[in-house]
Known about the structure:
The chain has an eight-stranded mixed beta sheet, sandwiched between helices. The protein is globular, with a radius of gyration of 21 Å. The chain folds into two domains: 2-72 and 223-393, Alkaline Phosphatase, subunit A; 82-219, no CATH class. It has helices spanning 24-27, 31-39, 56-63, 68-71, 76-82, 116-130, 179-193, 197-204, 227-231, 242-250, 269-279, 292-298, 302-327, 374-377, 388-393, and strands spanning 2-8, 41-45, 92-101, 106-108, 135-141, 144-149, 156-157, 175-176, 212-219, 235-238, 254-256, 285-290, 331-336, 353-359, 381-382. It is 35% helix and 20% strand.
Amino acid sequence: MKYLLIVFDGMADEPLAELDLKTPMQVARKPYMDDIARRGVVGAVRTTPEGMQPGSDITNMSILGYDPARYYTGRAPIEAASLQIPMEQSDVAFRANLVATDGAVITDSSAGHISSEEARELIDLIDGKLSTRKIKFYPGVSYRHIMVWRDGSDDVQVTAPYKIHNKPFEDYLPVGDGEEKLRQLIYDSLELLDSHPINRRRRDEGKQPANMLWLWGQGRQPSLVSFLGLHGLTGSVVAAVDLIRGLGRLVGLKVLDVPGATGYVDTNYLGKGQYALEALRDRDFVWVHVEAADEAAHEGKLDLKIEAIESMDKLVLGTILNGLGRAGEDFRLLLLPDHPTPVATQSHTDTPVPFVLYSSTRDRANRAPYDERAVEETSLHVDEGYRLIDLLFEE
């Protein structure tokens, strides 16, 4: 038996007037998701524990079977693990977003989805100018990077940049132990990057500049029991974003590199499906994560989110289901969004999300829809998200 966990990040949404009070999931063409829903089990799960924020770090940790209330220490140290950045227990990692700003507000928290090549040059400059014996910057993917503060403090309040689009960022600067250092780094980065040739060129091309760092998501390295120890299976992870790859690495999953996987709507959907199939040749479990719908929602782009849902269905899920069918492989599959990301608000919410559990060895006659309506209509509710994966492994 093979097991698949498929997470379509931020796919769930809310009814929209422009869709006649339907959601992107309801109007998108997703025949593969609808088919496994009809032949499987549809339920609802709360992936964000009470009192915690609905970030993808917390929700995906929960989906993977780890109680965030017990294991979560912060977003950045998980991403640092993906980049294989060495950390001591006294070190604190911060997520260092390249953002676009006009000097007063953050106009784009992804810096126009700057390319990794351009971003690396900017982060290398930041590292060369702002690093010290205790501060070090590391390049990641696109706008997502890491700063490690040796013997630093994590007792500081920070805000995710996607939550403060078009708001005065001075109102959301770090507050707490070490705030002076963190604020100075943010302002120094603006001074260094604003007139950089890359940003002058990006402006000339009508693109958003990547002219400031925003520091957030701090934490110390977590200690997680291995996936094999927790679930008794070896496995792989197929993902583009460092958050998911880092979480996979921390629990001992094999991290696969898919050419053309970007963590955006232009990702290599087909390649992700193909690599997932290949991963199951020598391992029993694969976790597939696709970021596209979440990024479209953060940008408030409804059409792009619907397009991403359709691409994920056809090219990721469809490729996997057709490949397993040709191979005659018995499998169980769990599919869900990690959290809603409403296009209207461009931010995550902590409301429950619908999931589908499907087994190739047992067809069911299910009438519940696979979209947000299932949250109200289903009789199967999982209130502690970290227990959901147990359903995948139950025969």
